[in-house]
Amino acid sequence: MRPILKSNKLDDVCYEIRGPAMEKARQMEEEGHKIIKLNIGNLAVFGFDPPDEIVHDMIRNMHGAAGYTDSKGMFAPRKAVMHYTQEKNIAGVTIEDIYLGNGASELIVMAMNGLLNNGDEVLVPAPDYPLWTAAVSLSGGNPVHYVCDEQAGWMPDVEDMRRKITSNTKAIVVINPNNPTGALYPKEVLLDIIELARQHQLIVLADEIYDKTLYDGEEHISMASLADDVLFITLNGLSKNYRSCGYRAGWMVVSGEKRHAKDYIDGLNMLASMRLCANAPGQFAIQTALGGYQSINDLVGPGGRLLKQRDLAHKLLTDIPGVTCVKPKAALYMFPRLDPVMYPIADDQQFACELLSEEKVLIVQGTGFNWIAPDHFRLVFLPNSDDLGDACGRIARFLDGYRRRHGRG
């Protein structure tokens, strides 16, 4: 019979966070092995629970969650998001500028579907959260990766952005705080990117899902608060700051230069209507989350669990010969570098699979985040301190053996 093939739109799409190594881990678990999973920022499985008041409000309102809501979302949670934009100093946002979604992920795809024609280009960071690259490709566009500079604390290289803008470029994606590096961008860098967007009439898509997961007293600046003459699409949600990944409650805010974007906004409205609505139970969580006690501050502040685990993971990893890592200022991840002389890795996906086979530790290779060389990997520092110490010890043991096997011991 004629083979049934996947769409060629998927040829350039990958999502290695749930890729071959995770499939291998699943098979190993079925064989009875216990795997330490450092590949996904899935907070609940590591004992990070959502705030009680969110859970209680969802339960109380479940009787009203059976019907479709407005295609953009319920009024009360959208009003709460509008108030949040005011707290972030984003001007001119109305209820109609806010779209609720099944997590920010759905809205990322919607934003790209509504914007791109075949051959249009979008500047995406390298490394990036790979859904951005995938969403551009699936929408018929070409992702063009600009470099974030590890030597400068993983700051975006604005000159590299400038060099890569063409007549086909439609938008710039900025992930701040950044996944996978944990970098947090200062106002000066954000203003430089906005000026670039202004000069070339580009849309700025700002992924700010970790805007409260900040360490060492750092503060987050929303890009859309810095200008009103550029079109901004800002994405956020409850998954990370409120430990509610499975609730799939996210939002997208259109702000800035909206006067010349009516046709695009009409397209977003059409796409929102086509998916009918975001899930209603998750919508019920938004108002309570944004208006309630911000328990994330207890986790990232002095003595907080996330802060302690970040510091522990950073120390244990950088104590390994040939491993360096820019200390994250935000988010839940580290993106350490392996000295290519000490660790001559040709295929970092194979490297991740070997680590999994030998030490039962699952990480994601750096090229899975569209990084340019096989010399990085990402891990989450969500396991409790004992498990995190065990995992880093296993990584250290594996790397010691790797150096010896390749004559670098």
Précis, in short:
The protein is α/β, with parallel strands linked by helices and 409 residues long. Helix content is 38%, strand content 16%.
Overall description:
The chain is an alpha/beta fold and 409 residues long. Helices cover 38% and strands 16% of the residues. It is built from 13 helices and 15 strands. It has helices at 20-30, 52-61, 75-87, 103-115, 130-138, 158-164, 187-200, 262-274, 280-291, 296-300, 305-318, 348-359, 385-405, and strands at 36-37, 98-102, 121-126, 142-149, 155-156, 169-175, 203-207, 231-237, 249-256, 323-324, 333-334, 337-338, 361-362, 364-365, 377-380. Strands 2-9-8-7-6-3-4-5 form an 8-stranded mixed β-sheet. Strands 11-15-14 form a 3-stranded antiparallel β-sheet. Strands 1-13 form a two-stranded parallel ribbon. Strand 3, helix 5 and strand 4 (142-149) form a beta-alpha-beta unit. The longest helix has 21 residues, at 385-405. The model has no long low-confidence stretch (mean pLDDT 95). Its EC number is 2.6.1.2. It is an enzyme of class 2 (transferase). It holds the Pfam family Aminotran_1_2. Residues 34-395 form the Aminotransferase class I/classII large domain. Its cofactor is pyridoxal 5'-phosphate.
